Every structure is written in structure tokens, then in C-alpha cells.
Amino acid sequence: MARTELTVQDVDRSGLNATYTSGDSTNDHSFENLTEDIVLHIKNAGTGACVVTVDIPITPDGQAVTDKSVTVPAAGERFFGPFPKAVYNQEDAGNSIDEAVLVDLDQDDNVTLAAIRVEKA
Question: Is the pTM of this model over 0.85?
């Protein structure tokens, strides 16, 4: 099954009332990363911590790189990013995204996410 795609939302001086996507720890998530100025906002209204892991697909000199993770505590929030294309981008064939960032959750109980890009003036 395809990953749950996060729609990238733009924030500018007019403001943004972000739309959040429910966490999906079974299929996980992805978003298109064309501009390298996107951050994830993760809200965890659950009673346990949630580990959010972003896949790093590069292998410099044949050496795997450890994926980047952040822990969102119970009843907490975290901003995570931005994601340089050369480090994080890869194909998400299930959603037909050539330049995607892949996001995994260890649990999704009351977890929501939004991918937010700051528009440049």
C-alpha cells in the first residue's frame, strides 16, 4: 500500500490555518520536497512518546548513514526540518513522487502531521 502523502502547505504573511493529517504508522508518510524549505509539524496528543524518523537514503563511500529521528513527547509538539534534497530526497513510487522525503512513525495514537513551507517574499 502507498504511503500517506502529506500535502505541502504554504505559509506567508497572511497566515496559515494548517490542515493536519492523521498519523499512519502502518503505511507511514511522504511529501514532495522540491524547494528544501519545508518543515514538519508533528502534534502528539497521545499518552506515549512518538518517534518520527526521516529516511536518509545516501551511502557516501558505500557507508550507510543513520536515519534522522526526533522524539515527540506525550501531549507535545515538534517542528522538524528542513530537509536538504541531496541528503533526504528519494523516489516514492507508490505516490508517483520523484523527489520525496519519507517519514516513518513508531506509533500513531493521536498523532497528526503537517508539511509546511515558508513562502519567500
Answer: yes
